């Protein structure tokens, strides 16, 4: 119980640990680890967190350090081999020295990183993404969509400062054919760790308003082949494959297509090339339409010319026929008119002469009758003188009656009472010259002389 204790200071302990580590770990070691966080400081140094995961859980963790000059050299190697700088979440092959600090404990001083190993890891990720998509039947899903005849409404996933976006819009807006496009920008990061989640989120947003668009395009540019590994990410590629609209990419990559480009409906090396493809789609539609319009116009002109010629010829023939028919009918009517006038004049003349004869006969009869009556009157006067006033008055009344009868027998007075004289061929109509339908009648009234044609004849049954 009274043994003297040996007590060390903390500094002595950590110094001993440091000495032990330095003596034990004098070499450089190649270590495979995931860079969980880079932790880049303004000084240019980086102090990454390195981890090892098994089944998604961290089973080992240690801090590292990369001095500024080493970090610049390593990043240059990554840019040369991978076309992008180091990024968090990557599995790396690190050349490290085990170091110990009395203040910060054990850490790994990173001397170098092999980008070729990371390239292999990226290729492995690429192959794993392709295999998963193939197993799930998504490799050709987007390519099997029907492409719109005129992809006029375009949802663009890009950054508003991207040169690729500028090049793409320039091709669409300044096309010489006057094709009009409606575009809407959905902002997203285009490279690095943030690109995967950003682009995927915008694809989901477009899906909600898909009825407003015909296609989706993802364009980037100005960065060469830098930062393209995100386009091999499974979640991003699945979002592209399952998008309900055709997805077209122009992400500026000339070799080793990313998975996103492979499963998209169509990919182009540059945004400019992608824009020119859309113009070509419009052109391939418009040229046949324009040719069809020209053919229809030519055919219409030909039909109209032929129709006009036929119509003109028909009009000429019709005009000639009408003129001939009019002339023929005019001649016929003129002949008939002359004949009718001649017959009418002759008939009127005959009737006039007949009336004159009748008038003479009536005058003679009247004079004779008057003479006879005068004789009778003279005798009567003598008788009256002889037979008193009464007899004179009686005879005077009889005289008046007779005078009225004479006036009534005058043909003019007969006609004046509404009677008419009907003759056929100058003769009175009687049983001896029975009239027939179609024959001509001459009718004389007090005011008129009329010519008529018989339509129907009915015989009176007189008792």
UniProtKB/TrEMBL annotation:
Keyword annotations from UniProtKB, A to Z: Cytoplasm, Exonuclease, Hydrolase, Nuclease
Task: Report the residue ranges that make up the Exonuclease VII large subunit C-terminal domain in this protein.
Answer: 138-452
Q: Where in the cell is it found?
A: Cytoplasm
A Gene Ontology cellular component where this protein is annotated is: exodeoxyribonuclease VII complex
Location (main, coarse):
cytoplasm
- Which GO molecular function terms does the record list? exodeoxyribonuclease VII activity; nucleic acid binding
The UniProt entry's GO biological process terms, in alphabetical order, are: DNA catabolic process
- Which enzyme type, at the first EC level? hydrolase
Start and end residues of each OB-fold nucleic acid binding domain:
8-113
> Which residues are the signal sequence here?
none
Classification via Pfam families: Exonuc_VII_L, tRNA_anti_2
Catalytic activity reported? Exonucleolytic cleavage in either 5'- to 3'- or 3'- to 5'-direction to yield nucleoside 5'-phosphates
Family annotation (InterPro entries): Exonuc_VII_L, Exonuc_VII_lsu_C, OB-fold_nuc-bd_dom
Enzyme Commission number(s)? 3.1.11.6
Return the similarity comment: Belongs to the XseA family.
Protein name according to UniProt:
Exodeoxyribonuclease 7 large subunit
List the source organism.
Taishania pollutisoli
